[in-house]
Amino acid sequence: MPETPSNDVLLDEPAPRRRRRRIWPWVLGFFGLLVIVLVVAGILGARLFSEAMDVRDDLEAAKSRLGNVTELVRSGDAEQFSAVAADVLTYTSDADRIVQGPLWQYASWVPFVGQNVAAIRDTTEATHILVRDALPASFTVLGAMQRENIRFEGGGFNLATFRGALDALPAVDAAFTEASAKISGIDRDALLPFVDDAVGQVIDVIEESAPIAHAATEVLPTALKMLGEDGPRTYLVIFQNNAEIRATGGAGAAGVYVKADGGRIELLGTTGSASFEIDGVSGTAQLALPADTLALYDDEFSRFSQNYTKTPNFPTAARLFQAVAPVTDGYTVDGVVSLDPVVLGDILAVTGPVTVDGIEVNADNAVSLLLNETYFRFPGDQAPADAFFAATSALVFQKLVSGDWDLTAMLDVFGTAGEQQRLYGWFSRPEEEQVAQRLGIDGAMKTDNTEATEVGIFLNDAAVSKLEYYLSTSIAITCDAAARTVTTSITMTNNVDRDDLTYHIGALRSPRYGGSNTTMLLDVLYFAPPGASITSATPASGDAEGLDRASTEDGRNAQSIAILLDRGQTRTVSYTSALPEGPLAPLSVRYSPTVTDTPVAIDAGCAQLTN
After folding, report:
1. What residues have CB less than 8 Å from 286, skipping those under 6 apart?
2. Is the pTM here over 0.85, yes or no?
């Protein structure tokens, strides 16, 4: 019988080898491909970097070439300006051509860096648009802003120069509109810091200048008429005294009448509370106001001109002044403009000082002189203090209409005054009133919530004093989105720091309600947003019996309580409103400007209530 092979023998036979996968060719292939990609990326990156440097050099050259444009405009050298504009256009055209290439488009898709490439491309294109379309027209526009071109000897403004600018403005406006569209998609928070620094300068210029160019294009034709292009206009300019605070700033105790005819501005005369109230003439007798409006204020509101500005609705105050002016001063006015000594001081910073009764009034001392020191100089009689105020106002106005100042700086003054709610204007012709509305100085209370959901919190001196020279305020807005409510709070501090207050500075009426002559008595007046109700006030009532009020004005629910504010004391008054159903625009705040700035804080949570 044959032997059977043992298992050991079988195990000793070599087993068939497994076939190994050959991975090295795959690895080598991958790394080869990666190397090729990196080489290509490196080449493209180097090319992109080179192109970016070319763009930078072109834009730097354009910027350098623009360096003497202002001097060319000032000298009126149109030929040289055109040559500079052509050179600059060559540089920006080259830069624009580069960023229009496909490499920039592809690079803008790369994660992390793409948004930076796109931002550089978009701002370069926007710059080219402005140079191509706005720069040629800007010679005429900038020329109109030169003081030697705009002013008349003796006071006023050369309307022909502005008319020339009007013809050029549409091109500038269109260029800025197109440039704005180019940069509208840039998220600066997503950019690398050095990229944001570079493109931010262009973005800031466009965002600041585009609205100005558009507003000038819309407003200038009517503004020329307001300056008497098609016939004379007469205006009353009221100077509000913040030391005796009112809803729109202060008591309107001084003013000037001016005439604008063909651009020439003439001071017709001064006026004030003593003039407005001769022979018992009052706003009440000349202009009928709704009973609901009158119920919000004391019975002196529409009787005496220094109280007309107790209403925050400036058109109402202006119409009261307009109504009494023909009776008391013999002038029929086409509009009323209002500003305060803070603005006068800012104007003097641009025009230079004036001298009144041997005293220099300048940017640094205008507020203290007019609102405080004058009452110490004339402690027994307010008439000389009012006369000093009126004389100063008239001289500042004459400085203003002389035109011997920098227009850009003056526009900044009035822009800031409007933002701080220190400048208002009302005009009897509807198209001219639209200019005030467009510039945001009309002072009319909002009647709906489409553009802004407006709350208003205002102060009116009820003590018959000039104590509010020492008042400081701050405002805070908080919201409860779930309850759909908004709470508006004003914090007030009495900073009186001396004992020798004169009769006209000290509080006349505060002692009747338990205060002293250094105690402010303030009507804290609140206007709920349009369609909103007032659900509570803190404190629930004021300190002076019989002075709390509640009513409506122009359809807005309003309430006021009278607060005693002792020397050195700080108090807060809050009102809460239930907001109406429906969409709401972002919150805005109207308030009474004081001698100092008023900080306003709107809680971030309020954004949940708005569109």
Report:
1. 320, 323, 324, 327
2. no
